[in-house]
Amino acid sequence: MNKKIFLLFSIILIFQTFQTKAQNFFWVEFSNKSNTKYSIANPYEYLSERAIERRIRQNIPIDSLDLPVNLNYIDSVLNIGGELVHESKWLNGITVKVEMDNFLTEVEKLPFVSEVQLTKPSGANKSAINKFNESVGAEKAPIDTSKYGASVYQTGLMNGQFLHNKNFNGQGMQIAILDAGFLNADEYLAFDSLWANNQILGTKDFVDPNSNVFDANYHGMSVLSCIGGNVPGDLIGTARKASFWLLRSEDAGSEFLIEEDNWVVAAEFADSVGVDIINSSLGYFVYDDPSTDHTYADMDGKTTRVTQGANVAASRGILVFSSAGNEGNNSWKYLIAPSDGDNVIGVGATNKFGFPASFTSLGPAADGDIKPNVAAMGWNTYLQRSDGSLGSSSGTSFSSPVLAGMAACLWQAFPYTTAKQVKLALELSSSKYNNPDSLIGYGIPDFQTAWVYLTNNSISQHEFGKNWQVYPNPVANYLVLQQDNIGIEKKVRIEIYSVDGRKLKQWIKSNTSKIILNGLQSLPSGILLLKVISDNSSETLKIYKHR
Prior knowledge:
four-stranded antiparallel sheet, 13 helices, 24 strands
């Protein structure tokens, strides 16, 4: 053999011997949590004391969703081959990194496995998708205030200074930020006070546990500055005295389904350490693998895995804020997951005058729910930029944290109020509550008005019956009835009565577990009785007609 050919052959052989095998990521879902070593009766094994106290304060029981995944099931999957990436107790499954070609075939044979899905293929190149789709502007507020400086509009638009003037700046509240990284948040001046006062509680990377979140993408750093930034006379975050968990769930270099699963396990971690609020300036609808793209029909508040996880987080007593998306000018146009979640606060964007930004994603959710729920300033929001300067940038990525921070201040003022009550106070106080639209939902919250509602104890939660829950309550011009138990009633009769027994309205609805009643403006204000009658049950719930 020619020496040159032999040498080339040897080099190729050596390369093939030492090159890394292809690695695929799979989601493996289990059918049950049978025989788990954990118990609902002993939640301190898997939840922090603060997480348990949050549930007790809001009368939320520990249930099977809180139980960790069965370790024997995990071991059985790993024995087939692969490395555990993370596990989700809420969705009862795991993400596994594998090199073997027949993993999917073999793991599907396990009797307790209900679903296996490839969530990130090997050899994924850098994504062509513009994940955050932001624009940068040079505009600064013309009003030079001694306190807020150029950030005056994003707080002032919501009358947030009302709470700040009462010294509610988020003290004692814990906020988890789920994002793509927090580049230089350990160095920039805007965050000095957070570090000096031990307000950064910790970090965790769910994309690459061996990486440093402060060396990753800048996006979460800018988001953090909207809430916790503190440069007196220039940038004042909406909750600059809150405490933060900085969690990386997003891989900025690609876009695959695995990031939804990263999001869910990050939210589970946030729940377990006891946070009060989650802000997610992330969203999902298209992927580098088009076969996994979501459709608008999937934006129904419950279908995507990330939305399911966000709904569970809210059910644990956490306020979950999610950017509605920046798709208003694009062919998709609509909101993106998880902002569609039934229990999630989807946030749209406006300019400093309260007009909807052209880019803000449109509602409603595919099931007809009002989305986005509310809006805040996301057009030329003043924040910490990636290059170290302070300036403005645009996107619902920034309207969401601006609002989340103010909500932390409101909740701080009323610590025994539930997350559902705070959410309702935000919506009731908003500028378009009586006439919501598909651009900014109920509109822009007014935090002095929200304060009044909570001070006067005039906010109720969803009204829960044996089979149905009713919201929003108080009601203005529409009402949603949602069936709590599994199954769809063939026919439901709904009647509304005054407290003196007069029937005011009646509807007959068929084959639905979720009913939206419109046109309630004419009902008299005050306490009313809602009667829901079906073939299987009859119950009466109390509602309050607002304004």
